[in-house]
Amino acid sequence: MVHVERAAQQGTWICCVPCYWLRRSKAVHKALLTFAMLLVTSLLVTSPVLFLITTLPEGEQPRECVPVDEACIRERDGPEGLCDSKACEEASKQMVAFMKKGVDPCKDFYQFACGGIRDQQPYRPSSSFNMLQARVDDRLHKLLGNRTGHMVGVFEKLGQFYNGCLEFKEKPVNFTPVYELLRELGGYLPPKSIAPADITPLVSRLLRVNGAPLFDFFVDVDLYDRSRSSVFLDLPTKHQEDAFFAENPEERLRWAKAYSMMEKQRKRAVHEESRAYTMIKNKMEEQRSRRIQKIVDGLLPKTMDPKDRASETDLLLQFCLSLSKIYPKHKDLYNWVDVDQRVYVPFNMSYLQESFGYIRWGTLLNATLGAATADLYNHSRNRERPAYGYDDQLVYVYVTAPRYFRSLGKLLNRFSRRIIHNGLLLLYATDTLHDIVNVTGSKDWELSCFKLTKDVFSEIVGALYVQQYTPQYLENLANKVGGLFERVKETVAERILVKSWLDEETRTQALLKLNSLRGRFHVWPGFHNESLLAREMAEVEIDPADFFHTVLKRFRQVRTVDDKVLRRNVTEKRRHPYSVSAYYESSTNTIGIPLAMMIAWSWSWDAGPAYAAHATLGSVIGHEILHAFDLHRRRLPLDPDMNVDQWLWITPESWKRLEARIECVARLYARSFWRKVQFYGNDVAVQFDWNVTRNENVADIGALQISYKTWHTLTNGKDRSLPGLEGLRPSQLFFISAAQTYCSNMTAEAYILSVELDYHTPQPERVNGIMMNSQAFADAFRCPIGTKMNPPNKCTTW
């Protein structure tokens, strides 16, 4: 959802009476909606995939099946039997290892399906989403270390950069290059010195070396015109500590005592998990304050008077911590943005300058971006250039969370320009440069090098990952996932047609939106384009004797997006193929599944059981499809006619009926899930904010039901078994597979952070909440009515 903020404008309307009548007539409107619903339904029901399923030829002769025709393959090879391939054997071992014997699945299905995970190695290869990324990263680690012999040709410099980082650990820690760079960027301004009145030049210089203490920006595909790029203003780079708690036992004892004191002093009205989370935040802020103070000690002149030094340190710390405090809270972001993607509010250049006058935005963009890209925003260069871009559309800069940028303006007015200047340099050194030179501060320097390499060579690392597979294999895989996507869409369409809370207008709008929904499963072809990759790497310079300046040069290259295909239009490149994170993109009504996730269950199509892909990828696809119908996906009227309906796809009447179903989920979760965790020797009661998780909970419950129905329609409940699991029915294996994608082994601290900072319900509540609302699950495990996993009153939306 994107709404536009712009200055008030007046215009003239020319009306035609017949057009006005056609637009306002309820009878005409209803007739058009009915026609559209019938048309869309017919298109969905008669789709090619469904046609293949329902019109299979008969006969005993060997059948020729196309790779994406799963129904044909199942009929040809037989729907049942034992899968004894190596992939199936490994999948069986993993499934058994995660399960816990002796647990009643009707009392606690998460413990039944995932209770054995605590006995596993923390990064054991797994199909679990929580561990799949670790497996992908381990593979990339081996590639970068040239253990597979891939670091040649266009990847040679990438390997040199990674190895140079590893070797940098052997050198003594030296902060001198950091302070030299800060002097180049403007240097420390002592008291009584004259500071520049405009911070724009400094902000631009910092952005060009990958510094974003106030805000960041990137270039991506325009949300309205996919043929060109636009600038997106983003929230600032926020430093995150790798470890929240010190390993020093004395440090842990100190924080345990502090928590006990907080426990006694706080009123009981405050939720206990808030106290625990406050404790974690205080620890993180203390660590960051120590880091800032360490940088300040080297930044201030050694000859400075001790009193002036202490005063200056306090002022700089106050600026840095104040800036951290206006960073949006997680729950505030939820209210400002859509789940799983930010709302980018378009500002034209004049309104951008009017709204946030503390930066000269035209100057900033021209100075920071490449010439051709900057020209799109620089009307002063060409006086004859019209105020409109291509196709008479205004050129927009898309702003993330404008409320933050307004708060930023108020904060900057509270500090002198000199303190702001010094504070920005300090934050850049603290959040960007410190981890590069302070090799002794990292518990795992090899992991730090891996993260840095991915950060500054993300597209090349993506190409390295993709080129493990042939284009033909990737094409076949994308087509198979595309076939699954179409089948899941058909199931969603069937649900839309029968759900009673939808009125006819909402039903029609939902079907229209579903029909236009697209999936991105094909890997960007540029990852196999050797000449394109070679051009990108040609300008990379690796200095084995000076790793710090090698990184600095790469920072500058990454920020130069002009004419660099690999560094712009991130959305068009299907995000990073090695990330384990599916997404729904509202601006294009598209879902995307990265390559790493598709490969994880590709064995399901190689004579494996169909439930493996349907319970995992099918559930993910269903989940992302349902985000197209998120509960808060409303729009502001872009049309000057203020009578335009505010609802994007749902009428107020349907919304009221839907709200009752949402409340059902919230009440059921509130009754069923209440948990205590051990935190510094205290039992901390964890309570959930069901308003924040409601979109994800509704999508979770609906996705499982939709993926199960899709699988059952294809197989009629008959599927292949895995070695050692022949005693379990295919329907039971479906639900075990679905649950095990969320298996996790987290500490109490990680659990508290998950509750506070994640839009999803954490495990094990997420798994049990999904299953207890599924009648098919209760039937598969024959759970008596009234048991925890089979409550008499279930909640369902889709």
TrEMBL record:
Keywords: Hydrolase, Membrane, Metal-binding, Metalloprotease, Protease, Transmembrane, Transmembrane helix, Zinc. It is a single-pass type II membrane protein. The chain crosses the membrane at residues 31-53. One of its GO terms (cellular component) is plasma membrane. InterPro entries: MetalloPept_cat_dom_sf, Peptidase_M13, Peptidase_M13_C, Peptidase_M13_dom_2, Peptidase_M13_N. Its main location: membrane. Gene3D superfamilies: Collagenase (Catalytic Domain), Neutral endopeptidase , domain2. This is Neprilysin-1 isoform X1. It comes from Bombus vosnesenskii. The gene is LOC117230970.
